[in-house]
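Notes to self after the call with IL:
- keep both proteins in one doc
- input above output, always
- annotate only the second one for now

Protein 1:
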Amino acid sequence: MTPPPSADQPLTQRLLALVQTLQFGWFSGHVVLIFATIQYFISYITLRYYNWWAQGSYRLAFFAAAVTYGVVVYKAYRARMRSGSRQANTPLVLVTDENVQYLAMALVWLLSRQIPLAMLPFAIYSIFHVATYFRTNLVPVISPSPRERTADGKPPPNALADSLGRFVKEYYDASMGFVALLEIATWVRVLLSFLTFSRGAIILFVAYTAFLRARYAQSGFMQSIVQQLTARVDATVANEGTPPAARQAWTTVKSVASQAVDATDMSRYFQQTEGPRAKKAQ
């Protein structure tokens, strides 16, 4: 991370030094994504989701998402190249990178028909990215710590930075669980389009199913939500009033899903160095 500009510099000079960094471009992309999502859903609520303004906001949101994840992927790729590791940039390694997966899906959504649900996970991630960047980068530039130190040698606390830190710490886990739920709901929406033979639905269904499979393999939040949903359906199907045909259908669905998960287990081809992990704000 680039160190903050010196507090001895004028504010305009400190800000100018900050905005010239690649990370500020990443931050700006997340800000654009949030505002584009808000603008689109305002149009959606007012039933104007197919006018030029709404369509432009929808495309802009995913363009911004592609830019932000592209920046992260580029920085990670450059770091691996500097390390001199050739294996670190193989296609198999790249496709198991969460940021590459989100970059790919941002591009897919950018070129696909509008599905509003798909915007929400990206927007929620962006909220935490913006809050984290604002706390760690913008606040020290706008309001640098004074030279005085507290009794334990630390700089005096900054109220805004502390508030943002508490927000991220308090709501991050619950929000990531909600993101996982939204991604499953989006897959159901894509499945309905596939079953009704909507234009372009086959490619979108295949792409998003592969994406969701990767999220299940790598995200503890996704695994937890799937387990919770499965347990709820199991409890519902176990009721005495449930028709036998419904029970058999659910058993078949679980069996097919389990076989599909086993058949697409990438650990057979790629030795994981880490267990399942949640998406981290970068």
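Protein 2 (the one to annotate):
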Amino acid sequence: MLDDQLVTEDDLGSQFFVSELHVGMNRAAAAASQVRALNPRVAISVDMENILLKPPEFYSMFDMVIATDLDLASFSMVNTACRFVNKPFYAAGSHGMYGFVFADLITHEYVIEREKSNIPTQPKAETMTRSILATNAKEVNGKQVELVTKREIYSPINLANTSPLPVGQISSRRRKLQVPPLLTCLRALWEFQTLTQQSVPSHSHTDLEIFTRLATEKHKELQLPPETLRSDFLRSFLQNVGSEIAPVTAFLGGQLAQDVINVLGQREQPIQNFLLFDGDDAKGPIYALHPIFPALETPIV
């Protein structure tokens, strides 16, 4: 566990592993004993250095890296370092009732089990990022089960953040209307952080004006209908930015943990590649965001 920040009173409302006694202590050190108690067989080490000071070689000792609640520049720096040493990377964050999980597994092979069809499964490309590599069969309780080996290719977060929605998602107005404005607001927030060097917008007129302008631009870039970027959602998002709500972080953590287990075991379809969670609607759609444009046949990774 790596964290260079200190425990604050705000952490007490969303962090199960710290108490009032830990205020002012390093967050990783304060939470370590409670985390170790969850499973004593797992070795937990604590690092209190700034993540941005770590060289790419630092990440080579891990099977997987998970970064949470950083700005886009920091996410991108860690993601790039993980790619340099060929390590899977996850990014996650929450803002009150809203949150996301992003995955960059670089190239990932996995196996799914399903009932064998009368039509043989052939190796082929299923999508721009997913291919069937091979198939095998086995008998389970008198039924023929097919084991299909697939491969997914991924894009780093800096490219995913500027990529269009999948062609199938924007091919009809009905599907465009289903895309939550949360994606727009997350992109606007990251752009706001880059432009202003602030972690979250304040309630000043200037900050609200900048964020609203950025959100409008990002919504247009995604080719989404203007009416889906409602003023009430913008207001709700800005009111939630920078806060944590335990049920939301628990949901996101559960989804992330489940995906990590599947990836390490090379079983089941992993997140590809951006999961959004809107606590108001209790929905968690996943979008494959890659620099794939109609004129291109393969993603730029």
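Annotation: The first strand starts at residue 65 and ends at 68. Helices lie at 27-38, 72-84, 157-160, 173-178, 182-196, 205-221, 231-240, 246-265.
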